[in-house]
């Protein structure tokens, strides 16, 4: 096999409950992930015979905000492929081509998705035959969102978000995502969350999953799900990017069933009643001040998988 292409979805956080800051600098989370039909593609291929350069792994990025994606050792797909090679105990070579559609630094785990796709693609290209569980274990060391990008569907993540339990979900949910100009740093948003909490005083409760949200997923009820969407990082994201409030207000005014900042932002997610409703919402939301474009998607969808 000379090349393998893997398609991998973005995620939206239906609930992101953030616990107190731990001594190791992380937070305990309850993170309800939902994979949606906005995809990146990663192709892993064997280098040409004459390409015997020093770097065993090379990466090229095309598409959505490609210039903002690291193209060297800091690229998460490269780090994932290198970790996979170490796990196998051998030295491997690959050229990685990332085609972006998931927004960069947008709170939809685009970098983690690319890492997951690289794990699946290189596992196939190199003929390793590792099961999903092994890939998820490797991915958890790359980033907390990588295991879910491998799993897909809908799941609750605990710990740093990497310990996953699939959730029963009925039906299909329809979404609009308002893509903002520029990104937000995840560490900066968490830091702002800690600052706001310290300023407010009082204890920070341990995170727990929302019974109302889990029931809405089981029933496939978009109205109940819209009422149950929550994100503890949203106040911090709005503090750092106040214009996002206008985007959220625009979606609510246009009839979204629910609206929230996705993950650490700045992408805003809006739940619609149907595909037609989502298309109409997108037209209204695109006029918001901090929205450069709005895209529709649906979920849940499978995790990283070989295309074709």
From TrEMBL:
One Pfam family here: GHMP_kinases_C
SUPFAM superfamilies: GHMP Kinase, C-terminal domain (SSF55060), Ribosomal protein S5 domain 2-like (SSF54211)
Domain GHMP kinase N-terminal: 75-153
Domain of life: Bacteria
Top-level class of the enzyme under EC nomenclature: transferase
Residues annotated as binding ATP: 103-113
Entry function: Catalyzes the phosphorylation of the position 2 hydroxy group of 4-diphosphocytidyl-2C-methyl-D-erythritol.
PANTHER family linked to this entry: 4-DIPHOSPHOCYTIDYL-2-C-METHYL-D-ERYTHRITOL KINASE, CHLOROPLASTIC (PTHR43527:SF2)
The protein's name in its UniProt record: 4-diphosphocytidyl-2-C-methyl-D-erythritol kinase
Organism: Microbispora corallina
Record gene name: ispE
């Amino acid at each position: 096999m000379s090349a393998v292409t893997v398609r991998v979805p973005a995620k939206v956080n239906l609930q992101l409950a953030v616990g107190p800051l731990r001594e190791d600098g992380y937070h305990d989370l309850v993170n309800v992930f939902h994979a949606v039909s906005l995809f990146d593609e990663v192709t892993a291929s064997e280098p040409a015979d004459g390409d015997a350069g020093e770097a065993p792994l090379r990466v090229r990025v095309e598409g959505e905000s490609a210039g903002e994606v690291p193209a060297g050792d800091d690229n998460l797909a490269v780090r994932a492929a290198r970790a996979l090679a170490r796990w196998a105990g051998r030295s491997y070579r690959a050229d990685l081509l990332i085609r972006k559609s998931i927004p960069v630094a947008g709170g939809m785990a685009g970098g983690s998705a690319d890492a997951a796709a690289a794990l699946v693609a290189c596992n196939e290209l190199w003929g390793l035959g590792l099961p999903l569980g092994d890939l998820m274990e490797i991915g958890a060391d790359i980033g907390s969102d990588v295991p879910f990008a491998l799993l897909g569907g809908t799941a609750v993540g605990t710990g740093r978000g990497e310990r996953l339990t699939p959730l029963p979900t009925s039906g299909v949910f329809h979404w609009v995502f308002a893509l903002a100009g520029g990104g937000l740093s995840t560490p900066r948003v968490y830091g702002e969350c800690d600052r706001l909490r310290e300023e407010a005083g009082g204890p920070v409760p341990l995170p727990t999953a929302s019974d109302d949200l889990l029931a809405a997923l089981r029933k496939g009820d978009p109205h109940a799900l819209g009422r149950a969407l929550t994100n503890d990082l949203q106040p911090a994201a709005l503090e750092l990017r106040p214009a996002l409030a206008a985007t959220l207000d625009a979606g609510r005014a246009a009839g979204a069933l629910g609206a929230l900042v996705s993950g650490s932002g700045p992408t805003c997610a809006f739940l619609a009643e149907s595909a037609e409703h989502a298309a109409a919402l997108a037209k209204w939301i695109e006029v918001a001040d901090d929205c450069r474009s709005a895209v529709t998607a649906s979920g849940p969808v499978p995790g990283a998988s070989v295309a074709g």
